[in-house]
User: Fold Ribosome-releasing factor 2, mitochondrial from Maudiozyma barnettii.
Amino acid sequence: MGFAVRVLLQFVRRHSTLEKIRNIGIIAHIDAGKTTTTERMLYYAGKTNRIGNVDHGDTITDFLPQERSRGITIQSAAISFDWRNRGKINLIDTPGHADFSFEVIRALKVLDGCVTIFDAVAGVEAQTEKVWKMSQKIPKICFINKMDREGAGFSRTVKEIIMKLNTRVALVNIPYFSLDPQTKEQTFEGVIDVINKKLIKWNMDDPDSVNVVDIDPIKDSTLYNQLFKARESLIETLSEFDDNLVEIFLEDANGDYLELSSSVINKTLRNLTLNNDIAPILCGASFKNIGVQPLLDAVVDYLPSPIETRLPDINKKDYVMKFDHSKGLMINNNGSMSVSLAFKVITDPIRGLMVFVRVYSGTLKNGYNVFNTTTKRPFKIGKLVRMNADVPEEINHLNTGEIGVLTGSSINGNVSTGDTIISHSIKKDGLKSFKKNEELTLKINPIDVPEPVFTVTVEPKSLGNKDSMEKALKRLVIEDPSLRVTVDEETGQTLLSGMGELHLEIAGDKLVNTLGAQVELGKVTVSYKEIINETTSVEDYSDEIGYKFSISLEPLDSSVNDISNKSNNETWYPLGSDNNYLIMEKSHKYDLEREWLLQLTYDSIVNSIISSSIVAFQKGGKISNFPLHSCAVRVNGNWEVPLDVEKPNEILVITRNMITKSLNKLATSQYSMLQPIMSLNVDVKPSDMGVVVRDLTSDHDAVILSIDDRDSTEKSEDNLFFNKIAEKQYVPDDVTLNLMKTSNVNESSKHVKAEAPLRKMISYNKKLRSLTQGRGDFQMYFEKMERVTPDHLKEIVDDL
Assistant:
């Protein structure tokens, strides 16, 4: 075989492989059926020979003891499988509980597409709305699950998806019910495939039984009529976006909705899904093994490959990014550079630290030297593996678009969640070929850690347990950066902060039962912060050996969401997740763009000041020593450092003392306390609304923002367009839709939106269930940090 032929074959295989990869996530509200659906996907793909059950605690992706005992997903799990030789699917099953939103946040950074699962009885729920917004730029497929349940409403849920999620939809299939002639009861048995014009039926007693039949227009006139209306609606919707489809419809199909080719419809629907213009909708009942195979077909048919996805975010505005059909993502036309994002870190009892990565460009290989652009440190990769939930499979390399895991002793302490890793795709020691001030500072798809709002104290049972406690806490935070460990400088207590009560409960359980830490956990309390009210500074600080710094501290009134529009003469660096920043003004003496005069690199100087700032801010303010929030450390551009200094330790000490000195200049009255304010979504029956609202406003200091009918159409300006679309959208007739149209508005569920201080919402779930006899439901999310008023300050301080 000639060289040219071999090169051509390699190109074809590489291109084919890239086109077949699907990196997808399963997202939804808790209990919508994410893990149940994932288990069926694995079974039908031949990855497993049995179907795991959440209630039995034997699922593949929920493998943690806490997940199996509680029946909920706590951490995202990755697994890879092939589907009918049509596509290789890398799937991440994410948690649905709001306390574990960070698991969803970091998974979304590496996904090209999503499957959003809806409970057909509950419809569009609060957490579904949240994760939909979080994944706004990612193409999605909708799967309406639990169609076998009493009260399931496919059509109502479709209309809610349009109205509440503001999206256009395409019905790929619609539900099929059999009618018992004696009892007149309907049983969900399958789906009508709108695109391929087939009826697909499953036998619930045999998961491997599936029957695909044609729909006879005479014998099955009702089904045929539904198929025609659904296909007509689908083609009309697609035609609004694609003029070429209109031409084919008129010329090749002679204007007949049933004659238009399935391949033409699929091609158009794929393009519109990739552009985020439309979300395909399918339905099923995963627990009864209905509708999963068509969902897998839809993943391959409509969701993007790594060369069709959106370009990632990078910190280099002048870099050119494009997709190459043979090499995948190309950054600055550098075909030899491999770029990966570390999005998750776990600790395996046998392999030690394991780092999940998504390769965006080039190839990552076993044993290669790589460079962490976040820590500015090189290290060597050990073995690469591909995870099947908790079972590793060793591989030799990871190509563009693939998700895998780094292992080896050298990664310990060298990689964290959110780090960018670069290497040479061809040369094992090819790092020297990269330009020092360009590729080695590249950062891709930054991961923002949300604000922790709950705190517990962690104390060793004895002094001898302290070291093991600190090691266990360190491992806990490495695996879950949304947890934060701090030490109260005044009391010496170790504090563990997290996203919610359940989050901390799970973390404590893991700390004691998995990591074996001999500790005592205190009660859950609120994470308060402090803020300075005015600017303070230390001017022209110099010492005898040639250091010079002018530092000022400034309050930031609101969250800094965009630092790209700041002055060109200053650079902003985040200091952890408390909305604190280091502002480095452009140096008057040292020119980064020309000859650099110092032994120390600019990055090492900045990193030292970042470290000193974080330490000083963690010591807290003067009210109750809570960590500082929304503050900036500004370093004037007239700073000087001795030319021959090689280590930055002295810079760290000097700047930390300066920041502490500046803070001490402020009186206690010049500090304010901040408390977390939460956004609430409460769903209750009309008969319970009065007592719930009174309780919120009187006992929980809540501010009611709105009270809506849960199942009614909102008439706000923003939603008016999609409300009209929902009214026109064809959906098959179902009982819940009729009830939605004809029922008295006062009988529908009420949806209360409110804001309340977190300190008043601890254990609210128990209170709500008591007030509503278990009928109420609520979701709570962090909204903002807000200054505590003087009349509440004493109450909070006295309770501490």
Remarks:
- DSSP finds 19 helices and 38 strands in the chain.
- The first helix runs from residue 3 to 20.
- The first strand starts at residue 21 and ends at 28.
